[in-house]
Amino acid sequence: MFDLTFTIDDDGAPTPLTLPIDQAVIAGWTGRDPVARDKHIAELEAIGIARPASTPIYYRVAACRLTTADSIEVSGEDSSGEVEFVLIGWQGRIFVGLGSDHTDRKVEAYSVTVSKQMCDKPIASELWELEDVADHWDQMILRSFAWIDGKRVLYQEGTLDAMLPVKELIDRQFGTAGLPDGCAMFGGTFAAKGGIRPASRFEYELEDPVLKRSIRHAYDVITLPVLG
Predict the structure, then answer these.
(1) 20 forms bridges with which residues in the sheet?
(2) CA distance 71 to 222
(3) From the UniProt record, which GO molecular function terms apply (predicted)?
């Protein structure tokens, strides 16, 4: 178990909240639309990654892989980010955050489970209460930008009505017990515009068009040499 400090809105005042995180789960292939889901599966198959054993599927990673840092170090040039909403359980409450499931694509071709463990998972330091956004959840927007060859390009974009509803996403993994305290669960992603590819910097956001606010985060990708 380790602690991460976030900022939440407490009656209009930004308030720090330190949460003990002892479990991290990466949910994959969580799309409601089987056509869009299969498009993402085909996208990964095109770079040699096997189809998942089930849809959705829930991968476990070490909780210490979560970080709010603004840079990460990776081995080689075969990794890339994916924007996802993040659900965190704490004292019976659920908070909504923002993360990037940064993944080593070369290792992913060998084992998706192992690849999830290879890279840190950058998350934003701001959280919202789920109950504050539940009634307009499907309208919220996930979006990412990647810096590729010195240019900032739109990499992913979509509304959450394309993803499994929160309750179903949680129930399929944890049943009626609900999201455990101290668990951070990534909720799935969208296909990359132009295909999956590495970037030197990854910027991403969760936009709430109803309450007129966004959570944003960005990180630089520092590539370490692979010497054999």
Answers:
(1) 3
(2) 7
(3) catalytic activity
Average pLDDT value over all residues in the chain:
94
Cβ contact 116:103 at 8 Å: yes
Domain encompassing residue 189: 2-9+18-224
Quick one: pLDDT at residue 172? 95
Q: What is the CATH number of the domain that holds 154?
A: 3.90.850.10
Q: What are phi and psi of 224, to 5 degrees?
A: -95, 145
- What's the pLDDT score for residue 9? 87
Q: 158-167: per-residue pLDDT in tens?
A: 999 999 999 9
Count how many domains the chain has.
1
Concatenating the DSSP letter of every residue in 89-131 gives: EETTEEEEEEEE--EEHHHHTT-HHHHHHHS-EEB-SB-EEHH
Over residues 51-66, mean pLDDT: 92
Contact at 8 Å (CB) between 21 and 4?
yes
pLDDT on residue 48: 77
- Is the pLDDT reported for residue 39 higher than 80? no
Q: Which residues pair with 225 in a beta bridge?
A: none
Three-state DSSP state, 80 = strand
In whole angstroms, give the CA distance from residue 122 to residue 216: 11
210, 136 contact by CB (below 8 A): yes
